[in-house]
């Protein structure tokens, strides 16, 4: 996570990925930035739509956006109006071994307010060279969750809206409810109304209120691993041992009730 000032200072030597809608991007964007969406890096069809594409396909796509292993990547969004797409891209890059991928606190607006140069010009055509060195500490799988449903070292953190946690299925889930024993924290509860992040102290207090300690393994999930990826990035920035379940409810709810239990209690 970078403050707007830190991100502004890095701009000249960074790749900037913009996760706002393409129509908004083409009206105005940071000079030299590229428009991306989480979908283009993910499996297209349900129930596995939250999962990333195979490594070789990911590598080629990332290189086409000018991504190098050693060049910082700044990911921006319109934080108060998005779904955590910026966090999904940062989580993906870090899970693939990129060590300098960052969320920008406050998103696009915060950079613009600091005088970052903007335009409506086309995107650059630079090509990168990226080698994947996957970091398994950032990703949880359904088998890991199944094996640890009753492991007190694990906490499953549901980052969806209240209605989803309580059983509604608005986004194509096969079944409703949440993973038994899961804690609930809607991801936008870590944002101020203007889209900027709460302070470290405020975030720690919210996590503490859920009974989650810093030694706990936190597995975040949502519908397709987007909001939960954002949560993972934020929590790891605060020193928590968090990992994202990319398949999330699309994948989990498609399994049988015995092996992939859900509850509304």
Automatic annotation (TrEMBL):
Name of protein: Rhodanese domain-containing protein
Keyword annotations of the record: Repeat
Q: Name one Pfam family in it.
A: Rhodanese
Q: Which InterPro entries does this UniProt record tie to the protein?
A: Rhodanese-like_dom, Rhodanese-like_dom_sf, Thiosulfate_sulfurtransferase
Q: Which organism is it from?
A: Leptospira tipperaryensis
Residue span, Rhodanese domain:
10-120, 150-261
